[in-house]
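FW: tagging you since you asked about this chain on Friday. Here's the raw sequence from the shared folder, copied in full. Didn't touch anything.
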Amino acid sequence: MARRVLHDQYFKKAKDEGYLARSAYKLQEIAQRHRLIAKGQRVLDLGCAPGAWLQVAAELVGAKGVVVGIDLKEVRDAIGANVATVVGDIYETEASVLTGMGGGLFDVVVSDMAPDTTGAGDTDHHRSVRLCRHVLEMLPGLLKPGGNLAMKVFEGGTYPALVKETGRLFASAKGFKPKASRDVSREIYVVALGYRPRRDDARAAGRAESGA
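HL: got it, structure written out here
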């Protein structure tokens, strides 16, 4: 099998500019186009290894902001003083562990997570949708009301339904494919702004943050 050519323009640019992966430019574009992240905010990065999104998020929030990441794999490179990471599975890690590391509910949640791919498009699509739906289920314990979300999914039959489900929880939700995504990739990002938790979820999150 021929090896995939990795030395495209974004690979070279990432190497030249000190980013750990070409995916850094995906978050940069998402954040710029949608005003996703602001200075001084708390950001949670789900599926953070190897650390490129942590780097971008840390730059965007600045020294007064906080970035927390979780991944099944360890982030081996030091990112910055305002970045903390944990090795863990989002299906097994309590939201309180992550908010405890971040100092409270997050202003922004980003996810570049992807399932182990099988090569079967429908299977990979449904697995990625399952990951995204789990992220949505976790939001009451992670994201502040009014907060923002960006999460990766593989396009497929239930993608429109996922966007609609996300839109019920946010003021706006839409799909966005960054220029740094490979042309042959089915990945797309659901970008949602203005989190509106259900009333019961908001109350529970408020009690959790206050320690009640």
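FW: Residues 1-7 have pLDDT under 50 and may be disordered.
HL: agreed, and The chain has seven helices and seven strands.
FW: great, closing this out.
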